């Protein structure tokens, strides 16, 4: 009410100011006329803010008399703010009710505070990423791994090593999500998991069958092996836990960590999802697109990308029997594909020896590079370094979506056999290469994310921490029904349904409960109710309504 | 060449001894934390389910009365004391923390119609069917001293309600007329009447302490100002109101409990239409009391349930019922906002939690943080259908459930008829009467 607002306008009257204040007070009262409602409502806010600022200034002045050379808050660079920005600011319409406006402004202020705090926190991050710079005449791609290993400290140098496993065929590999454990699966049946930094062997078995793919499940306790006929799940000690006959002829697997889903692509064209926390098959989709050999997941929205021999890439979610999107990417078959962790870019390579970069949110082709020999295995690191393997050479490219020429890779390494799988180790500057002669671990400075979040993935976690994390992750497990192209769909307002419901309500009630009544000007005396005056009053209100409907000019 | 490979010193990431806490370095980069919205939604769903899981509102039952409990009163200063009056004339003083009766006073012959405690907390007043108003001491009498009232006022007619002023030594009673009394006098200083011969309830406004409101038997609510000689105005409704309660935070709002199964919140300045109509009971609403925060109120009904309503919503957020609790006659919200007390006609007073899933006692800071986080999550996703369905679901006894369904069908039938009449008559000839306007007959100044 205006009584409360008035108290913001004036300080309380003191007893000696009664006579003097009375005249001034009356003058002020007549100034604030009832027509200037909007202004009188804004003024107390301004005055309140001014008073707050005055208070701040009084705090900033020091007893010594010196002045703060950098008054106010420390500025935050715009890119930093953009990194943490989620969604846009909500434009409050001027016709909204007061309570709605207040609620929105308050929540926006809280979001702003959270944004600024998160942006400022970046100063406190302990580690910095690695880098490799050659001398003036040196190309970084000619630097050998042995030289790098000699140049850095012992611990980092030990990250370059070779495992000579020539007996059991080309090796597929998978790093666990914390980056501590490495799973190797040879084509002829050799499966082993090692802690690659300490070289401790956790388990080593031979399953006596062809292995198509190996994948860690949610932690280092269990892994899945796609064997000749069926899907097997093993314990970290190598004990066979499950043989899942429903999942047959599996060629490729992807684990969706936040949904606890193992997505498998089979030779018969079936894409199946297995919930590993409950042990049930969530969805089996007959893709009818032939042998599914090329598979990748989008870590941002848990969509599975499949590459096909006719050059198309299809995007799948467990809720739909048809692909969500089908893109024609290459003129030959698709050999490999990978998606970056923010879900913005997809890199594909095909039999037409092209390497293409797509914006996967807008489904637009960004760049296309020509590689003299097409890439058979692709992998993107956490910081955006792309590794492409052709034959027995692995090349690492930097700044793939910048659009510059890709003639010179960032780094290159030749291994002893044809490359069968590449995978970056999370949170480390290491690229693992599985090939015909075993496994090679290659140092790629600048590949890994330097600062991990211990509440999400902590490479230094103890057993107790791992157990607690597992319980919390299971409680937060997202249901597969929520997998879609936009993971933030639940936070959006469903305007279409609201409008439909409103229409139905108007029909049912017979009148529109949200509509404002038409303005009927009051009958005024002393000649102020002539037809012309009434029309003018109506126009004024209409003009104000129109002004309210127009979006505001300022931010 | 210049080269730096990412290499972490384990000493910075692993704790030194087992007596330390674990180190938890954080990185708030959104790309490290995908699926924010689905995970929050899952957490909100879990929080809603756990709230229902831990919703055990019944705390204790205070037994000892030998007839139905007709009135309850809070102690003005002490949170653990409660007064109750029964239909056989007994008044009992209870200690809630020990859940025992401190003393029993044979106060009246006949019903104890109303009790109210004085603002200082040293005495309380009772009115009964024997046409007397008695004032009693709050502390127990000494050893072997008989219980005697401090003061007795004999009246000419039965008094049905009493309420004391917030700060002065005056109280108001209602019976055939609304009387304002001074504590030192034996006859009322002022008497209000407006053509009605019986009033059921009188209440002082806790904020604007000179105002009173009363419920009269001619289906009206009358407003008085203690300083004037005549009543201010009255609003006449379709059915009679049983009791009313002023909002302790908003000076001009009060809620009355009506015989037509609803409660109405009025703004005393604009009595033409109620601010809100609260509908959820399936039988007459007998008592209403506001929470000390002024945001919610609790209502007791003849249909053996008590319901908690938010002050601005039309439907209840909570319903409490037990097989053993029969018609609830009186209800009070405790002054620490945590408990609700209900007195029913099967001689028991029950203590319920106001927030059914709240953990009582001292919470650690982590528990508090978890509770606050869960509350915010539930508020954020409260409109999603799955979350809403779980949050709204309450078990009801079978007959109340069936009665609710029947009332809904009746209401739907009436609404359909109104709509058809409106649709098939000349536009403008049949005015649309909103739900709020339907229940008020007239306002008389």
Can you walk through the features of this model?
Chain A: InterPro entries: BING4_C_dom (IPR012952), WD40/YVTN_repeat-like_dom_sf (IPR015943), WD40_repeat_dom_sf (IPR036322), WD40_rpt (IPR001680), WDR46/Utp7 (IPR040315). Chain A: Part of the small subunit (SSU) processome, composed of more than 70 proteins and the RNA chaperone small nucleolar RNA (snoRNA) U3. Interacts with DDX21, NCL, NOP2 and EBNA1BP2. The complex is a heterodimer of chains A (555) and B (445). Chain A has helices at 2-9, 18-31, 37-60, 78-84, 98-121, 145-151, 154-157, 463-475, 495-509, 531-549; strands spanning 131-133, 161-164, 171-175, 181-186, 190-195, 200-206, 211-216, 222-227, 230-235, 240-248, 250-256, 261-266, 270-275, 280-286, 294-298, 303-307, 312-316, 325-328, 334-339, 345-350, 354-359, 364-370, 377-380, 386-390, 393-397, 411-414, 419-424, 430-435, 438-443. By secondary structure, chain A is of the alpha+beta class. A four-stranded antiparallel beta sheet of chain A has the order 2-29-28-27. A four-stranded antiparallel beta sheet of chain A has the order 3-4-5-6, with no helix packed on it. Chain A has a four-stranded antiparallel beta sheet with strand order 7-8-9-10, with no helix packed on it. In chain A, a hairpin with a 3-residue loop joins strand 4 (181-186) and strand 5. In chain A, helix 1 (2-9) packs parallel to helix 3. Chain A is globular and about 110 Å long. The two termini of chain A are 28 Å apart. Chain B has 445 residues and is of the alpha+beta class. Chain B has five helices and 30 strands. Chain B has helices spanning 36-53, 365-380, 385-392, 398-423, 435-438; strands at residues 2-4, 58-63, 69-74, 81-86, 90-95, 100-106, 112-117, 123-128, 132-137, 151-154, 161-164, 170-174, 178-182, 190-192, 199-204, 211-216, 220-225, 233-237, 241-246, 253-258, 262-267, 276-279, 285-290, 296-301, 306-310, 318-320, 328-333, 339-344, 348-353, 440-444. A five-stranded antiparallel beta sheet of chain B has the order 15-16-17-18-30. In chain B, a hairpin with a 3-residue loop joins strand 12 (170-174) and strand 13 (178-182). Chain B starts with a strand and ends with a strand. The model of chain B has no long low-confidence stretch (mean pLDDT 94). The interface between A and B is large, with 69 and 40 residues.
């Amino acid at each position: 009410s205006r009584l409360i607002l008035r108290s913001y306008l004036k300080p309380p009257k003191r007893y000696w100011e009664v006579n003097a204040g009375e005249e001034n007070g009356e003058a002020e009262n007549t100034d604030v006329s009832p027509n200037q409602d909007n202004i009188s409502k804004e003024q107390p806010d301004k005055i309140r803010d001014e008073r707050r600022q005055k208070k701040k200034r009084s705090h900033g002045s020091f007893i010594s008399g010196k002045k703060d050379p950098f008054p106010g808050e420390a500025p935050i660079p715009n890119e930093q703010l953009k990194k943490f920005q989620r969604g846009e600011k909500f434009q409050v319409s001027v016709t909204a009710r007061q309570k709605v406006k207040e609620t929105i402004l308050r929540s926006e202020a809280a979001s702003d505070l959270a944004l600024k705090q998160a942006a400022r926190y970046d100063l406190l991050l302990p580690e910095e990423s690695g880098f490799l710079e050659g001398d003036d005449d040196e190309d970084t791609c000619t630097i050998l791994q042995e030289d790098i290993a000699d140049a850095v400290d012992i611990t980092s140098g030990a990250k370059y090593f070779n495992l000579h496993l020539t007996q059991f065929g080309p090796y597929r590999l998978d790093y666990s999500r914390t980056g501590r454990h490495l799973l190797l699966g040879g084509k002829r049946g050799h499966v082993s998991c090692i802690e690659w930094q300490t070289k401790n062997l956790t388990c080593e078995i031979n399953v006596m069958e062809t292995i198509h793919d190996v994948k860690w499940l949610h932690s280092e306790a269990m892994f899945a092996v796609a064997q000749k006929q069926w899907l097997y799940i093993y314990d970290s000690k190598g004990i066979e836990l499950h043989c899942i006959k429903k999942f047959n002829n599996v060629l490729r697997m992807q684990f969706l960590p936040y949904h606890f889903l193992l997505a498998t692509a089979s030779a018969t064209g079936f894409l199946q999802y297995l919930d590993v926390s409950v042990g049930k098959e969530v969805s089996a989709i007959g893709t009818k697109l032939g042998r599914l050999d090329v598979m990748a997941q989008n870590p941002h929205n848990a969509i599975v990308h499949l590459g096909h021999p006719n050059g198309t890439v299809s995007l799948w979610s467990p809720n739909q029997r048809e692909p969500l999107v089908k893109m024609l990417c290459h003129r030959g078959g698709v050999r490999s594909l990978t998606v970056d962790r923010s879900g913005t870019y997809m890199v594909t390579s095909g039999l037409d020896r092209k390497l293409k970069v797509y914006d996967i949110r807008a489904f637009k082709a960004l760049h296309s590079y020509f590689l003299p020999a097409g890439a058979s295995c692709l992998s993107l690191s956490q910081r955006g370094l792309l590794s492409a393997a052709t034959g027995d050479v692995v090349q690492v490219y930097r700044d793939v979506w910048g659009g510059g020429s890709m003639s010179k890779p960032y780094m290159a390494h030749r291994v002893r056999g044809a490359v069968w799988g590449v995978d970056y180790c999370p949170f480390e500057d290491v690229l693992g290469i599985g090939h015909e002669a075993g496994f090679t671990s290659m140092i790629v400075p600048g590949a890994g994310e330097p600062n991990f979040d211990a509440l999400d993935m902590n490479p230094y976690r103890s057993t107790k921490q791992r157990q607690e994390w597992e319980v919390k992750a299971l409680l937060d497990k997202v249901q597969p029904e929520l997998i879609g192209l936009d993971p933030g769909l639940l936070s959006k307002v469903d305007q279409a349904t609201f409008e439909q419901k409103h229409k139905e309500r108007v029909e049912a009630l017979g009148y529109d409960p949200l509509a404002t009544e038409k303005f009927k000007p009051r009958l005024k005396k002393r000649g102020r109710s002539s037809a012309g005056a009434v029309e003018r009053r109506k126009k004024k209100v209409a003009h104000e309504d129109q002004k309210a409907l127009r979006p505001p000019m300022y931010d | 060449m210049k080269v730096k490979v990412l290499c972490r010193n384990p000493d910075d990431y692993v704790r030194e001894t087992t007596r330390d806490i674990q180190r938890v370095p954080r990185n708030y980069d959104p790309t490290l934390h995908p699926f924010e919205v689905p995970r929050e939604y899952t957490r909100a769903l879990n929080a809603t389910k756990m709230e229902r899981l831990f919703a055990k509102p019944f705390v204790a039952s205070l037994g000892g009365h030998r007839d139905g409990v007709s009135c309850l009163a809070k102690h003005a200063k002490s949170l653990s004391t409660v007064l109750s009056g029964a239909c056989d004339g007994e008044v009992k003083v209870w200690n809630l923390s020990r859940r025992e009766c401190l003393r029993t006073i044979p106060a009246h012959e006949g019903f104890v119609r109303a009790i109210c405690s004085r603002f200082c907390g040293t005495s309380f007043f009772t009115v009964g069917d024997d046409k007397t108003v008695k004032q009693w001491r709050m502390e127990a009498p000494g050893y072997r001293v008989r219980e005697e009232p401090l003061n007795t006022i004999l009246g000419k007619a039965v008094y049905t309600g009493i309420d004391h002023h917030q700060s002065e030594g005056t109280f108001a009673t209602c019976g055939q007329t609304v009387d304002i009394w001074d504590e030192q006098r034996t006859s009322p200083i002022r008497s209000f009447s407006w053509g009605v011969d019986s009033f059921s309830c009188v209440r002082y406004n806790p904020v604007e302490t000179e105002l009173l409101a009363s419920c009269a038997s001619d289906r009206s609510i009358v407003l008085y100002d203690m300083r004037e000689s005549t009543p201010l105005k009255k609003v006449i409704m379709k059915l009679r109101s049983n009791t009313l309660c002023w909002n302790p935070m908003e000076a001009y709002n009060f809620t009355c409990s009506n015989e037509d199964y609803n409660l109405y919140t009025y703004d005393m300045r604009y009595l033409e239409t109620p601010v809100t109509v609260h509908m959820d009971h399936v039988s007459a609403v007998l008592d209403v009391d506001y929470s000390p925060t002024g945001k919610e109120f609790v209502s007791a009904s003849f249909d053996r349930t008590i319901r908690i309503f938010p002050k601005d919503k039309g439907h209840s957020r909570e319903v409490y019922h037990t097989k053993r609790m029969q018609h609830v006659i009186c209800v009070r919200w405790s002054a620490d906002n945590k408990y609700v007390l209900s007195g029913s006609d099967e001689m028991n007073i029950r203590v319920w939690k106001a927030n059914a899933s709240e953990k009582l006692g001292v919470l650690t800071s982590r528990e508090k943080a978890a509770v606050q986080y869960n509350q915010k999550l539930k508020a954020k996703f409260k409109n999603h259908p799955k979350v809403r369905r779980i949050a709204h679901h309450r078990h009801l006894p079978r007959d109340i459930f069936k009665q609710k369904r029947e009332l809904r069908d009746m209401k739907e039938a009436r609404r359909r008829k109104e709509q058809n009449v409106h649709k098939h008559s000349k536009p403008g000839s049949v005015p649309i009467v909103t739900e709020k306007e339907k229940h008020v007959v007239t306002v008389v100044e």
